[in-house]
Amino acid sequence: MAGFRSLARQVRDPRCDLALRRYSLRKCLERFAPYGHRATWDHLCSRAGFGPEDRSPDPARLVAALDELEEARSVWLAYEVEFAHRRKKEKHDGLRRPGSVDDWHRLTWGGFGVAWCDDPRVHPREPLAEVLRRLISALERDPGAECPVCGGERLTWKYDLAHEPSSGPVCTRCGIVVPRPVLTPEALAAARRERRLLVSA
User: Residue 39 and residue 171: Cα distance in Å, rounded?
Assistant: First the structure.
């Protein structure tokens, strides 16, 4: 099975058939897709200026989409290196029990679904790397009451998500499932209340 880097080389290789180059970009999302496969694909297509179903997009647009994906991946991989270093130090210092960020991180190792968007058509519009930087910053500070990506204050609890965890607070503005560790207990409770209000309306 080809890795992310070899697939990225195929996307960039002008000697490759255009269909293979598009296919290779799609396969990259099996290795790294912050919003999930379908939502990340929709995001890259809209930002690079070609349709999700376009079978022969401009090769330059494919490469632009890959550039954005690679930049975001480098941001996430740097975070994972730092995360692993921190856990090693904590274990050395006798802190064996992982915290809530560690529990969340185990579900997103490799960057798949880091900012999961259950509806593939609703996702942040900013560049992927910027979204991940904002999310990482939120993971490294005290919990807050709003979406760390867009600042949206309206979060609603959703069940039966197509990703683990199978339920959680979803930002009604940008569509991400907000990681629980970045929210205060009060914000989590408010998201659950919002869900009950929507259901009873």
Answer: 15
Beta-bridged to residue 117, according to DSSP, are 176
SS3 call for 125 = coil
Q: Which residues contact 192 (CB under 8 A, 6 or more apart)?
A: 157
Count, in order, helices (H) and strands (E) of the chain.
Answer: 7, 2
Which residues are paired to 170 by β-bridges? 156, 177
Cis peptide before 165 (omega within 30 of 0): yes
What value does the CA radius of gyration of the chain take, rounded to a whole number of Å?
18
Q: Are 34 and 111 in contact (CB under 8 A)?
A: yes
Extract the tokens encoding 170.
């979803």
End-to-end CA distance of the chain: 49
The string of pLDDT tens digits covering residues 149-190 is 999 999 999 999 998 889 999 999 999 999 999 999 999 999
Nearby residues of 16 by Cβ (< 8 Å), 6 or more positions away: 10, 24
Residue boundaries of the structural domains of the chain:
4-200
Residue of 62 and 83 predicted with greater confidence: 62
What pTM does this model have? 0.90
